Amino acid sequence: MTLLHLHPLWNATGEWHALFALCPREQQAWLAERLQASPSLHDLPCYLPGAAADLPPLQPVVLRGQYWQGCDALICAGFEAPGFLATLPAGSLTYGPGYLLPAQARAGHPSQPALMQILALVVADAETHELEEAFALAPTLTHSLLKLVNSVGIGSRVDITSIRHAITVLGRRQLQRWLQLLLYAEQFGNDGENAALMTGAALRAKRLENWAQQGWLSQPADSAFLVGMLSLLDRLFGQPLAELLGELPLPPALRQALLAQEGELGRALHCVITLESGKATELPSPRITPRSWLESEISAFDWARQIQAYRGNDRAE
Are strands 46-49 and 16-22 parallel, antiparallel or unpaired? Predict the structure, then answer.
């Protein structure tokens, strides 16, 4: 069974510019249809070796030496570290897991301790008044969280105006998700530096969550999302992951998944990391069908693109 293999394409300045797809010909019509219907992906070019001529959203490319060449782009693999972007020929694009590495080491943001404390309270299912008291000690975090939640689609028709309101509308599990995203958003501030790491964390977490929702994992979807998001904290803060996780009351299975890639969630994490590198990998379940896999991938990329759009809007303010 051959499945879609999808990658974000980055330009020399580290911007997510397009998509690169390895997609069997018989699945290309599905891909074109889903991309056109996606609120966040329809404006991105999608380059694809062997693209069918009657599917305009897909841009054909052919292999020329180390590059895939299209009518308006050169695409190369090899994006393993941020410094690789500086070596790209003008106008070319690249794919690989280098966007998951920070461009440079930086000290933790001043809000990191408060955020980790609040996240620990949410993971421990603390009372609402405890969460409100913790946020009251960090008013800028309250503002940042509400701005993030209201900027990215959450299915609510009203603006969320307070932490209690957020808990009522979102629920605790969803609030936990936005706090995890806020860790990444706050660390990089408004300068955009290394912001691709936030996009990558969102994509990894949403992929794992989708796998659980599809029944390809037996673990709860929110646990799968949590593993994906927390798995990049060491790169975010430049500290050992075990040290960072020591601040959170995680179940042993999640801790082992994150630190040793053991158990079902650990194996799924290993699978998604291998996917990001562009290598063949064992699938998370034998029950996967080509159509369900394509739907899962487009859903994850669409959501990650929404998160990236939030970062762009945040920097514009």
Answer: parallel
For residue 198 the two structure tokens come to 């936030």
Q: Residue 18: phi, psi to the nearest 5?
A: -165, -175
Chain segment 249-260, per-residue pLDDT in tens: 999 999 999 999
Specify whether the CB–CB gap between 216 and 224 falls below 8 A.
Answer: no
54 and 116 belong to one structural domain: no
User: Cα angle vertex 178, ends 165, 274, to 5°?
Assistant: 160
Same domain, 132 and 63: no
pTM confidence score: 0.90
Around 68, how many Cα atoms within 13 Å sit in the side-chain half-sphere? 21
Asked if 87 and 125 sit in the same domain, the reply is no
Longest dimension (CA), the chain: 61
Q: What is the pLDDT of residues 145-204, one digit of tens each?
A: 888 777 765 555 667 888 888 888 778 778 888 888 888 877 765 544 457 888 999 999
Tokens found for residue 185: 């958003």
Phi/psi for 19 (5° steps) reads: -120, 150
